[in-house]
Amino acid sequence: VQLQASGGGLVQAGGSLRLSCAASGRTFSIYGMGWFRQAPGKEREFVAAISKSRGITYYADSVKGRFTISRDNAKNTVSLQMNSLKPEDTAIYYCAARLVHNSRWTDNDMDYWGKGTLVTVSS
Question: What radius of gyration, in Å, describes the C-alpha atoms of the chain?
Answer without folding.
Answer: 13
